[in-house]
């Protein structure tokens, strides 16, 4: 584990510590965090978008929004979000709309009433004659096994980065994006609904990657400065060398945590007991923040997934079963 002196969290707190509202901090993270994928890497064939640097104008806009969040609150509406991906997508739609770039969001394409072909996450203005298709994803993956290196046209190396619930992998996600979602603009059913032809279709991928505690392997195709954390099994909790934790609710997974206080602060023994009880009824890994507490401030220093003790075995069994069916995550 790192001590926080060189962490992404420290840099985020330094730049955005003045933002108090969780929704505005999440939006600042979406705009300012490193893109997960290295757009210059040959793996991606030039089809990776970037949010780009945050300009002084956008920085002032975020500060104003933190002071008066009414426009953002109105855009998100009264619904209680349970899906992190949808929450992040709504935040980005608000940003694009406020910047005057949004042409369409969530435009579904159907071949018939009951046959949905796909959906455009974002269509952005690309001049009077075209739109740009942005496929947006916010993902959290754990490195399971060894980081592998393959040729520039392959994505199997990214199959070792798996979702905490073992439902997918970064490799499978990118194959789906490249082979299906980014091709949607060429589908005949899309032609009648597109306001203008698609000039470019690219993927904008944000997120965090988590590595076995103590290891930080470099992987070609992944941005060198990407947001990252650790993962360990519950039985390895004592190896972390920290004693102040927060269990992060899902809508707090984007930006590093920072608040004036946190009544649900746990020491290591309390965290172990809480997770042991949770894992008896649910096999889902839990994202925790290692925090530093000072008078009037609790802030995240590091973060990581704590997984059930049998998670490695389940991950390997699922991978073997999928490979046996010629399914690659």
TrEMBL record:
In terms of superkingdom, the source organism counts as Bacteria
**UniProt xrefs under Pfam families:** DUF1853
Report the protein name in the record: DUF1853 family protein
Q: Which organism is it from?
A: Massilia niabensis
């Amino acid at each position: 584990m790192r001590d926080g002196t060189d962490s992404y969290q420290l840099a985020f707190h330094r730049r955005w510590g003045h933002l108090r509202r969780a929704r505005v901090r999440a939006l600042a993270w979406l705009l300012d965090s490193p893109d997960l994928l290295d757009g210059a890497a040959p793996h991606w064939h030039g089809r990776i978008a970037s949010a780009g640097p945050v300009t002084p104008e956008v920085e002032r806009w975020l500060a104003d929004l933190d002071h008066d969040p009414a426009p953002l609150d109105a855009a998100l509406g009264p619904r209680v979000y349970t899906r992190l991906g949808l929450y992040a997508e709504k935040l980005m739609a608000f940003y694009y709309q406020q910047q005057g770039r949004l042409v369409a969001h969530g435009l579904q394409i159907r071949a018939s009433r009951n046959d949905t072909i796909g959906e455009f996450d974002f269509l952005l203005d690309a001049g009077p004659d075209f739109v740009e298709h942005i496929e947006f994803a916010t993902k959290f993956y754990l490195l399971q096994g060894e980081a592998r290196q393959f040729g520039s046209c392959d994505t199997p190396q990214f199959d070792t980065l798996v979702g905490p619930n073992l439902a997918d992998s970064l490799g499978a996600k990118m194959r789906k994006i490249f082979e299906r979602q980014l091709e949607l603009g060429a589908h005949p059913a899309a032609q009648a609904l597109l306001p203008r032809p698609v000039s470019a279709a690219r993927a904008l991928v944000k997120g965090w990657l988590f590595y076995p505690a103590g290891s930080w392997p470099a992987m070609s195709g992944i941005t060198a400065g990407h947001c990252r954390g650790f993962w360990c099994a519950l039985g390895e909790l004592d190896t972390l060398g920290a004693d102040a934790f927060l269990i992060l609710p899902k809508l707090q997974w984007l930006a590093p945590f920072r608040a004036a206080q946190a009544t649900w602060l746990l020491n290591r023994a309390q965290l172990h007991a809480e997770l042991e009880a949770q894992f008896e009824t649910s096999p889902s890994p839990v994202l925790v923040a290692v925090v530093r507490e000072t008078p009037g401030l609790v802030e995240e220093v590091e973060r990581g997934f704590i997984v059930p003790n049998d998670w490695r075995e389940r991950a390997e069994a699922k991978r073997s079963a999928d490979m046996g069916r010629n399914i690659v995550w």
